[in-house]
Structures are given as C-alpha cells and as structure tokens.
Amino acid sequence: MRRPDGDRGQVSIELLGMTPLIVLTLVLVWQAVLVGYTFTLAGNAADEAVRAGTAAAPGGARQAACAAEGTKHLSSAWRDGATVSCGGSGYVTAEVRLHVPVLFPGLIDFPAEVTGHAGAVEEVKR
C-alpha cells in the first residue's frame, strides 16, 4: 500500500544522513591542503636560508644569517616551531623543519614535522 505523498521528504533524510560524511571529507581535504602548504613553505624557507648562508661568512655568522632569512617570510603559525640549520663548506646546505598545523594554523600542531632541504655553492668573494 502506497502513501499518498510517495517519497516526499526522502531527500532531506538522506542529506541529513550524509552530512557527517560530507563534513569529514571537507575536513580531510583541508588538512591535506595544510600539509601540502607546509611542504611548500619549508622548501621556500630552505631556499631563502641557503641563499643567505652562501653570502655569509662560515661559522656562527652563517648560521645566524641562515636562520634569520629562513624564518623571515614564515607567518607566526609556522615560525614558532620552525628550526633552521645550515652547514657545509664550499657547498652550503640548509634544512628547515616545520610543524604541520591541525585544521587551523596557530592553534595546535601535529607531532610530525615537514622538512625542506636546499643546497648551493658558496659564493667566492674577491
């Protein structure tokens, strides 16, 4: 026996049932975007750091210039947990480690880190 209204309201019920799955999918996609953006930031920061490191004198001055330039363009959400290290002689390398934020940058971070690497030949001063 069929009701006179048929399937009226069925789409609303199905949408309510699917809403948690839709929201979960959007949250996971957004988190994947944040992970990718953190990889991009780490790579760019490493490039900037090694560029500054090749122009600085070896030793403490190189590490200071490298760290300052490596974190210069990072927003505070990524800068707070960032570590920058430079080294090498002749061929300078930089490594930048950033924490991946959970959903909103600046609130909490995943315990895992994203690493960006860069290297360049040291500039010769004449």
From TrEMBL:
- Keyword annotations: Membrane, Transmembrane, Transmembrane helix
So where does this one cross the membrane?
A: 21-42
Protein name (Swiss-Prot/TrEMBL) = Septum formation initiator
Look up and give the organism this protein is from.
Streptomyces lucensis JCM 4490
